[in-house]
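call fold(seq) -> C-alpha cells
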Amino acid sequence: YVFIVQKGYQERETGPESSVITKVKGVTQSSSKVWDVGEYVAPPEGGNTFSILTRVEVSPAQAMGTCPEGPSAVCSSEQDCVPMAMDVSSHGERTGRCVPWAGGTLRSCEVLAWCPAEGGSVSESLAEMATQFTVLIKNHIHFPRFGFSKGNIQAPESDYLKSCTFNTTSALYCPIFKLGFLVEQAGEDFAALAEKGGVIGVIISWNCDLDLPDAECNPHYSFRRLDPKGALASPGYNYRFAKYYNWNGTRTRVLIKAYGIRVDVIVQGQAGKFSLIPTIITLATALTSLGLGSFLCDWVLLCCMDKEQRYSSRKFEQVPPG
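ret:
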C-alpha cells in the first residue's frame, strides 16, 4: 500500500513557487452612473487578492468644518461633550458644544471633521450586471527541486482567450471565470453576498506525478467562502475610500463605503518523482515490518557469502545424540 498507492518510491516536494496575475472585465450601472473596471476593482494591478464592488453607500460633498457628530454622540448639555475628545469610533475632534441635530428634534456633540458626518449616505447597488463580470486568473507554478514548471493557460491560438470560458472538461486551460460562477460554485447566493459582501476563495491545486508525461499534470480548481457566513459581529466585507476635488476653492470629497466580493486565489500542490533513496528506505521499512529483514540477512549470509560455514556453525548449535 505504501509503496504503490502512496508512491513511497518517489521523492516529493510540496508548496510550489507560484505567481498569480488577475484581470477583471465588465461594465455595470447603478442608479446614478455607469461603472467600469477602473472604478469597481481594487487594487487595480491585479494580484492574488482583489475585490469587486457590488454596493456602495455614498456620502457626497463633505468638506472640513464643524457639524453634529450624530447618533453616537447624543447629548443634553455641553457638559456631555468634552472639548478636544476623540476616540476610534468618532468622526473627528469634539468642540465642546451640544448642537441641534436631526432637524432639531435631537442634540448631538459638535465635531471638527469632514462634514456633514457619515450617516445620511445614499445606497447604490452595482450588482445588476456583476454576475457577468469575467475574471482571468493566470497562474504559473515551479517545483525547483525537479526543475519543473507549468502554467494554467495553454492556448492553441493567439486569440483563444477572447472567446473561451472555463469548463472542467472542455476548457480546463481557459482560466476565465464569470463572477456569478465563482459565487455559485462556492455555494452562495449572489444577491445576498453582494448586499453585505464576503470573501470567496479560489483554490488551485497542482498534484503532479513527474514520472508521467507533463500532460498528466493539470490544475484542479475548487471554490468556497472563506469568511464566516452569518457572523453576528462585523458580518460581510466592506471598506471605505474617498475621492477628492475642489469646489469653489474648497477641498471637498466624496466618501464611499464599499461592499464587495473579495476573491483570494490560493495556490497549493505537490510533486513526486522516482528516487533511489526513498525506494530503498520504503522497501527496508516494509520488510522490517513484515519480519522478513532478519530472514533475508540470514539467507544471504548462509547461501551467498564466502564464509557461510563459519556463520552456520555460530548460528546453529550441534546437539549430540542421546
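The two ends are 51 Å apart (CA to CA).
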